[in-house]
Write a structure and sequence with these properties.
The complex is a heterodimer of chains A (about 375) and B (about 600). Chain A is α/β, with parallel strands linked by helices and about 375 residues long. Chain A contains 15 helices and 15 strands. Chain B has five domains: about 180 residues, 3-Layer(aba) Sandwich (Rossmann fold); about 80 residues, Elongation Factor Tu (Ef-tu), domain 3 (Beta Barrel); about 70 residues, Alpha-Beta Plaits (2-Layer Sandwich); about 110 residues, Alpha-Beta Plaits (2-Layer Sandwich); about 110 residues, Alpha-Beta Plaits (2-Layer Sandwich). Chain B has an eight-stranded antiparallel sheet. In chain B, strands 20, 21, 22, 23, 24 and 25 form a six-stranded antiparallel sheet that branches. In chain B, strands 2-3-1-4-5 form a five-stranded mixed sheet, with helices on both faces. In chain B, α12 packs antiparallel against α14. Classes of the chains: A alpha/beta (about 375), B alpha+beta (about 600).
Chain lengths: ~375, ~600
């Protein structure tokens, strides 16, 4: 089976207040970092990949030169989908042209909200009009598969703000939308503020109202709700991310990236300098853990249930030579009884109630 | 007349309020007399249990033999008996005191006399001990030794004119203490040839030696091979070893009247060699046992249940093992509809209970749900039968009850005078009956109250501390039973009564209590898949209600390739928390809920 490839660019102009991904704003290491990435990429022997995804951080913060150097190293692969993440304010015309030239066929733009006041409160570096400008430009250059990241349950964001965001974005017709409920992650400034009681988070009822509204609204606009937080026009589901949710194999290249290859999950160190050192010096120091069949089955279910259509009983059986009810029968029956899961004969999937409290379901499979 | 041998022995203990420096002084004495080398010294040498060191308290008595050489070159044997300091262990303290001729009364030079200082001091006076006041912590800038000396003279009536002024922490004045011990504490007396009478002041279980009895020989001699009899338990044994504390066990040929040491005699259970019992010779029995023996009486009862019901047998074994070394702990099997199979356990007091619970969790790795502690209620039924109730669940229906009584204590509280109002208010809230109040000095007051034991056992001490910025001190003793108007308050979760949450409350407080408990449970019980009504009821009448709303949102919005491991860990943690909860019907209840019902104001 073809694998996916993820490349992490841990640089940002500035870290957003809620973000817990590994990134730094000191760009001076980018040349050395790109060289290390390329050296790691060279070790991948696969010719054909399912997808490539350059994420971050902010990949488009790289200089045009660095970007080009990295893209060149990837031209040895065949692929179906090639996504690059971008942030408004870093997406100049020349960079877009370079991306296009090297076969990038999907953009994922982090917008979050259309109200500049909210963008500012999140610590974002751009305005809504910056986004629109970039978006138009990308369309003009020929990108015909664009994702926009949005966020709800942001402190200070009302239901009206969220509706406005969805409507304005629906108007410009992206092929794909991610709508995330803000998570207060440990180690972020938001986490500190939250603990000091200085973050005014709406209650769960409003969060769910926003979520349910998005689902209904986007469906009415022709989007398919295919993962807890993801929506796509038919045929535009993200191939790369489905790899994770299908518990299939992927390479992860760069600082803090993870790989899942031949029953092992590998962890790259989340420090640019250490990463660069380790790439050249001691590959064996890379942390890895064995994913047993039991782990794999459990991950298959808890990742698979993130998909709206759930897990296929047939795929489970083929992959693990065992019936899913043999392994998890008790858990599944109980959850069906509680109205959190449903079995339509082919697939087992979360009910609407299950989608709201999916952790309660996932937990049972660990 | 004391023999020449006895003239060179001094048996003493140290009494003090918590944190006044008892253990530190003991350490200095050990160090100064060279009993342990510097390398062997570690802080609080005598507190051997991990728990004792952590909490800074002494739970079990300890003894150590110090050899002190005076300036004149004479050698004295000083037997130091370290006693527990907490009111839960008052009886143990009294037995330790009975093993001594004198006591050092350590008083903090910054804080002065506290409730426990007084309580222990009176206990020592009752035993006719020679008391040497020692003023500690004189190195602190806020020390006021002269005032404290005057206070001791005024309140207790002890002459403090040549009381040693010391700092145990920095090692100041320790020689004066040693000198005072030798000069002031009387040497032991007692006929070495009379029939044996030895007082057991503590006993330990050791898996190799059996029970090790810590004894003070009052009369006669005890040696290996001797047939002995325990006068209270009436059991007979043959002595396998006698010895002294250096502080490790060191075998000696014999112990004679006046000596402090240990004896082993293949005794299988501490129950057979209880604290306070008298050892005599089987062949030549003493006419009378030493005075003051009484078996330990548990005052506080609580249900102990394994969180995982499969661990019932493990819990039983653990309790049995703890009991080997703790004659005061009692338990019997009990069943709860809500919690399954467990044990009703009896303790000397709350501290004793907490210690047992902590030891079960730490040393035996058991997760325990404990129900709210209860005192023993005495119920006189309409048919004249009198029953003692230790578990609220078993309370007969009100129509069968003629009247109910509950245990009362005499509480002594010492507080700076500015907090008198706050303390009185608290005591009032806890159904205290004011007895009297006296000024110890112009700025400090001693209050006497009679109070239901039930009100004291849980958070009274914490409440007292928080209302007086930590300055007040408390001591209490049981004075008997008084009639009270009491009712059983039941708690219902999701419509079903949870027996383990029932408690007995004064009738006039029932509404207020019911409301407070419902509110508290609402805070503690996490939201679940469905809405959970929490109700408080007396009989069939619902008196309060709260609702835990159904869980609305619990979902990780993002999960991609780099997240899986971390997100899985979060879920594992969440699941672990769930596991620690007790499933009652369809409701998951955190362990602390069962104790928290007592903590409400």
């Amino acid at each position: 089976m073809e694998r996916a490839l993820y490349i992490h660019i841990p640089f940002c102009v500035r870290k957003c207040l809620y973000c817990d991904f590994y990134s730094i704003s000191d760009l001076s290491l980018q040349d050395d970092y790109i060289d290390a990435l390329i050296s790691e990429i060279k070790r991948i022997e696969d010719k054909k990949l399912k997808s490539i995804f350059i994420g971050g951080g902010t990949p488009t913060v790289l200089s045009k030169n660095s970007l080009e150097k990295l893209l060149r190293s990837l031209s040895k692969f065949q692929f179906t989908e090639f996504t690059v993440e971008a942030n408004p304010g870093t997406l100049e015309k020349e960079k877009l042209i370079v991306l296009k030239e090297y076969g990038v066929n999907r953009l994922s733009i982090g917008l979050q909200a259309v109200q500049d006041k909210i963008l500012k409160s999140l610590g974002r570096i751009h305005t809504f009009s910056d986004f629109l400008e970039n978006y138009e430009m990308a369309r003009k250059i020929g990108f015909n598969n664009i994702n926009v990241d949005l966020m709800f349950d942001i402190p200070g964001q009302g239901m009206d703000d969220w509706k406005e965001t969805l409507e304005k974005i629906a108007e410009i017709k992206p092929e794909h939308l991610s709508c995330y409920s803000l998570i207060i992650e440990e180690g972020t400034p938001f986490y500190e503020l939250y603990n000091m009681g200085q973050l005014n988070i709406a209650d769960e009822n409003i969060d769910r109202e926003m979520y349910h509204y998005s689902v209904n609204f986007l469906k009415s606009k022709g989007f398919v709700h295919y993962e807890i937080s993801n929506f796509a026009l038919p045929g535009y589901e993200c191939i790369h991310n489905l790899t994770y949710w299908n518990e299939e194999e992927y390479y992860g290249v760069g600082a803090s990236a993870h790989s899942f290859i031949d029953k092992f999950r590998y962890y790259n160190v989340d420090d640019v300098k250490k990463y660069i050192y380790l790439v050249y010096n001691d590959e064996s120091k890379r942390e890895k853990i064995f994913i047993s069949k039991k782990d794999e089955m459990s991950e298959f279910i808890l990742l698979g249930l993130r998909k709206i259509k759930g897990v296929s009983k047939e795929v489970f059986k083929k992959r693990f030579s065992d019936d899913v009810y043999n392994v998890f029968g008790q858990e599944i029956s109980k959850l069906i009884e509680q109205g959190l899961l449903m079995d339509d004969g082919k697939n087992i999937f979360l009910t609407n109630r299950g989608l709201d409290i999916a952790n309660q379901v996932f937990m049972r499979f660990i | 007349m004391p023999s020449d041998r006895q003239k060179k022995i001094r048996n003493f203990c140290i009494i003090a309020h918590i944190d006044h420096g008892k253990s530190t002084l003991a350490d200095r004495l050990i160090e100064k007399t060279g009993t342990l080398t510097q390398r062997e010294m570690e802080d609080q040498v005598l507190d051997t249990m991990e728990l004792e060191k952590e909490r800074g308290i002494t739970i079990k008595a300890q003894a150590i033999r110090l050899v002190h050489t005076t300036e004149g070159g004479e050698e004295y044997i000083l037997n130091l008996i370290d006693t527990p300091g907490h009111v839960d262990f008052n009886y143990e303290v009294s037995r330790s005191l009975a093993a001594c001729e004198g006591a050092l009364l350590v008083v903090d030079a910054t804080q002065g006399i506290q409730a426990q200082t007084l309580a222990n001091c009176y206990l020592a006076l009752e035993h006719d001990l020679e008391i040497i006041p020692v003023i500690n912590k004189i190195d602190l800038p806020s020390a006021r030794p002269d005032e404290i000396k005057k206070e001791i003279e005024d309140v207790i009536g002890l002459d403090c004119s040549d009381a040693p002024l010391i700092s145990a922490k920095v090692g100041l004045g320790i020689d004066d203490v040693l000198k005072a011990i030798v000069e002031k504490i009387p040497c032991p007396e007692g006929d070495e040839d009379a029939p044996l009478r030895a007082l057991i002041f503590d006993s330990y279980y050791d898996s190799y030696k059996g029970v090790i009895c810590y004894i003070r020989v009052k009369e006669g001699t005890i040696k290996k091979g001797m047939k002995i009899k325990l006068m209270a338990s009436k059991k007979e044994y043959e002595v396998t070893e006698v010895g002294i504390f250096r502080p490790q066990y060191m075998e000696v040929p014999e112990l004679k009247a006046g000596d402090v040491g240990y004896v082993c005699a293949s005794i299988k259970n501490v129950r057979d060699a209880r604290v306070g019992d008298t050892i005599t010779e089987a062949e030549r029995e003493a006419k009378e046992p030493l005075p003051g023996y009484r078996p330990a009486i548990p005052m506080v009862f609580s249900g102990f249940y394994p969180t995982d019901s499969a661990k019932y047998e493990e819990l039983k074994e653990a309790l049995e093992k703890l009991q080997l070394n703790d004659a005061a702990l009692i338990f019997e099997p009990e069943t709860s509809v809500a919690l399954g199979f467990g044990f009703r356990c009896g303790f000397l007091g709350l501290l004793h209970m907490e210690i047992v619970q902590e030891r079960l969790e730490r040393e035996y790795n058991l997760d325990i749900v404990t129900t709210a502690p209860s005192v023993i209620y005495r119920i006189t039924k309409t048919d004249g039968e009198v029953i003692e109730l230790t578990n609220p669940t078993n309370m007969p229906s009100p129509t069968e009850i003629e009247f109910m009584e509950e245990p009362y204590v005499k509480a002594t509280i010492i507080t700076p005078s500015e907090y008198v109002g706050a303390v009185m208010d608290l005591c009032q809230n806890k159904r205290g009956i004011f007895k009297n109040m006296e000024y110890i000095e112009t700025t400090r007051v001693m209050l006497h109250y009679e109070m239901p034991l039930n009100e004291i056992i849980y958070d009274f001490f914490d409440a007292l501390k928080s209302r007086t910025k930590g300055y007040a001190s408390l001591d209490y003793e049981l004075i008997g039973y008084k009639e009270s108007d009491l009712v059983k308050l039941d708690i219902l979760l999701n419509g079903d009564p949870v027996d383990a949450l029932s408690q007995i409350v004064p009738k006039e407080r029932a509404y207020q209590r019911g409301r407070a408990i419902c509110e508290k449970l609402k805070e503690i019980i996490p939201r679940q898949l469905f809405e959970i009504p929490i109700q408080a009821a007396i009989g069939s009448k619902i008196i309060a209600r709260e609702t835990v709303k159904a869980l609305r949102k619990d979902v990780l919005a993002k999960c991609y390739g780099g997240d899986i491991t971390r997100k899985k860990k979060l879920l594992e943690k969440q699941k672990e928390g769930k596991k620690r909860m007790k499933q009652i019907g369809t409701v998951e209840v955190p362990q602390e809920a069962f104790m928290a019902v007592l903590k409400v104001e």
